[in-house]
Amino acid sequence: MKIARIDEAFGRRDELLALILSSFAYMDDVIDPPSSAHRLTLASLAQKARDEIAFAAIESGRLTGCVFCKPEPGFLYIGKLAIAPASQGKGIGRRLLIVAEGIAREKGLPALRLETRIELTANHATFARWGFARTAENSHPGFTRATSIEMQKRLD
Questions:
Q1: Choosing a second label site near 79 at 20 to 30 A (CA), which of 112, 131, 133, 145?
Q2: pLDDT tens, 5-17?
Q3: Where is the N-acetyltransferase domain (predicted)?
Q4: Residue 146 and residue 132: Cα distance in Å, rounded?
Q5: Helix (H/G/I), strand (E/B), else coil: 117
Q6: Number of domain units in the chain
């Protein structure tokens, strides 16, 4: 498997958008509010790649995963970690997070931070196995109940 930087020269944005949408599709009837992945367009994805640090996993010429990373004070925020449904469980997510950890260390950031929906308990368990700990519950605008949890991984 090859890990490639998603930058201005990355010419596979159609495939990248399809990867994200397919990997987040299982959430459609599970989470409320709907995933922000549905608001992505080719233009907004290109902008996201300019604004953040992103990587794609490529196996046998196919895009199998991606991760977007955004430096914040004290953290590297992990967003849109997406693995193709047929490629899940093969260590791709873990490999992408190792790359993100390297970026955090290069930038002197001591931890990774992510958010996952409250309903996605299997994701909570996976991130916990990968060293993340639950640190907060948050609500999307207009909701009075918790809609997501924040998890952090210290890189000490």
A1: 145
A2: 999 889 899 999 9
A3: 1-156
A4: 19
A5: strand
A6: 1
Alpha helices in 79-142 (DSSP H): 92-106, 121-129
Q: What is the CATH number of the domain that holds 21?
A: 3.40.630.30
Quick one: which H or E segment has residue 44? helix 42-51
- Give the bridge partners for 76, in sequence order: 71, 112
C-alpha span between 52 and 57 (Å, rounded): 17
Q: Is 74 left (phi over 0), alpha (psi -120 to 50) or beta?
A: left
CA distances from 100 to 4, 67, 97, 130 (A): 12, 8, 5, 13
Owning domain of residue 7:
2-110
Helix then strand then coil, % of the chain, to nearest 5: 35, 35, 30
